[in-house]
Amino acid sequence: MSHTAHIPSHRKPRRSASKLAVRAGVAGGVLSTLAMAGTASASPSAEPVAETTLEMPVLNLDLAGDVSSAVTVAAENTRLAAVEGELTAQEESARTGAAAEAKQAKEEAQKKADAEKAEKAEKTAKEEAARKAEAERSSRSSSERTTLKSTAAPQGTGTVSAPATGSAAAIVNFARAQVGKAYVMGGTGPSSFDCSGLVQAAYRQAGISLPRMSQAQSSAGTSVSLNALQPGDILYWGSKGSAYHVAIYVGGGKFVGAQNPSTGIVERNLSYDKPTGAVRVL
Predict the structure, then answer these.
(1) Residue with the larger pLDDT of the pair 124 and 49
(2) Cross-strand pairs, 222
(3) What are phi and psi of 275, to 5 degrees?
(4) Interval 54-77 mean pLDDT
(5) Is it true that domain 144-280 has CATH number 3.90.1720.10?
(6) 36, 210, 269, 281: least CB-packed within 10 angstroms?
(7) CB within 8 Å of 128: residues ≥ 6 apart
(8) Nearest 5°: phi and psi at 268?
(9) Can the peptide bond before residue 190 be classed as cis, meaning omega within 30 degrees of 0?
(10) pLDDT-based confidence at 136, cuts 50/70/90?
(11) Model confidence over 165-183: pLDDT tens digits?
């Protein structure tokens, strides 16, 4: 085959970028060789140089198609990477939000549990104090009760045995009507009372407004002797102004009071539990 023969040209499948670079390098080398040959033929020479014709190999390169394909692939990869990044960010945001909500819910549940625990502890403490007070009253010696009976004997005559009238009758009748109902700490009626709640509600029947707590009720009105009680007088246990229990004297040497959770509202003789003192509001 002649060295000047043409290289047949036929289309081949697209080649990779590395193959394209090799072919481009070959073409550049051929062009460089031709340029040097042209320079040599242009310079003067004593001897004629035989003219040689070289044909440049035909490079059938579909560069535009390959570049377009590469750009398309790169753009698609960039788009997919952006979508994946956005999805990752959304997932992370969702996880962060869920964790924050869970933490807040846990804190609120803990606060609620602490509040319920504190309320229960307070209620238990009050009930325990009431039980201790009742136990203390029940444990009084028989000698003290005997002494109380002897000192209370005069109460069977005079003003002590006089029937209640007017406002006193309204107070006494209301108090007796509550006998048998439950004792509940903080109760103010109508189905349950504590000691000061019962006294306050009874006096309300007579149009008289009393303080809510037993300490203040023991300071209301005028102090009276236990030997000169009248129906409607307020009995108290403990020191005046700081009493821990109150009840209503209903006449005949008896009182009505909301004692404790185990007994509820009862009517008892003064000998059952001697009060410390009494005040008269009417």
Answers:
(1) 124
(2) 280
(3) -75, 160
(4) 69
(5) yes
(6) 36
(7) none
(8) -135, 155
(9) yes
(10) low
(11) 789 999 999 999 999 999 9
- Tokens representing 242? 């700081």
pLDDT tops 50 at residue 185: yes
Please give the biggest Cα pair distance in the chain. Answer: 171
Q: Which two tokens stand for residue 210?
A: 């009393």
Calculate the average pLDDT of the chain.
76
Tokens 């969702």 sit on residue: 94
Cβ-contact 178, 256 below 8 angstroms: yes
Please give the residue that has the higher pLDDT: either 190 or 282.
190
Q: How far apart, in whole angstroms, are the C-alpha atoms of residue 62 and residue 94?
A: 49
What tokens were used for 276? 């410390």
Amino acid (1-letter code) at residue 55: E
Q: Which residue has the tokens 């992370």?
A: 92
| Of 176, 174, 279, 170, nearest in space to 230 by CA | 279
216: nearest Cα among 241, 235, 236, 192: 241
- Helix, strand, coil fractions of the chain, as percent rounded to 5: 55, 15, 35
For the chain, give every domain's residue range.
63-93, 144-280
- The span from the CA of 188 to the CA of 184, in Å, is 9
Name every residue whose Cβ is closer than 8 Å to that of residue 34 and which is 6 or more positions away in sequence. Answer: 54, 56
Q: How far is CA 281 from CA 59, 199, 273, in A?
A: 125, 12, 22
